[in-house]
């Protein structure tokens, strides 16, 4: 009688537990990122960002707009932590790719027309090529709508501030993965 009762309790317990999580997507077998090259390029990106001079940026305070309009950024749910990167890096690389494309396009937009950053753009392109999925060149979406010229210094400052933060995070991801 006791074994039957134990079996019934186990069955009831199994019904109360949530279903097992779906298996994580496996990375594409064909192409893996060159982690060492990504580490070098992310360091170069951070170095270049540190050299960008912004006139009149001291004391510039910007009101952050709605978080819905923020550029892609790495979140905890993107699985960029060291343990997850070892087993499956697909989600993390996808998010990095999205943000790199966003910042690449921003650097080529009208807000940087007065203060172009060709070295930054080149480094971003190279980094994007290393983390891009599949053959070919990553697509470029249409350029963003032109903005008011008076707002360009503020937008440029905000874009560079966010890009610096993003570069620090991806530098950590690539540094860990290149070990």
UniProtKB/TrEMBL annotation:
Broad class of the protein's primary localization: secreted
Cellular compartments per GO CC: extracellular space
Localisation: Secreted
One annotated GO biological process: defense response to virus
Presence of the UniProt keyword Membrane in the record: no
Keyword Disulfide bond: yes
Protein family: Belongs to the IL-6 superfamily.
Function, in words: Associates with IL12B to form the pro-inflammatory cytokine IL-23 that plays different roles in innate and adaptive immunity. Released by antigen-presenting cells such as dendritic cells or macrophages, binds to a heterodimeric receptor complex composed of IL12RB1 and IL23R to activate JAK2 and TYK2 which then phosphorylate the receptor to form a docking site leading to the phosphorylation of STAT3 and STAT4. This process leads to activation of several pathways including p38 MAPK or NF-kappa-B and promotes the production of pro-inflammatory cytokines such as interleukin-17A/IL17A.
The name this protein goes by in its record: Interleukin-23 subunit alpha
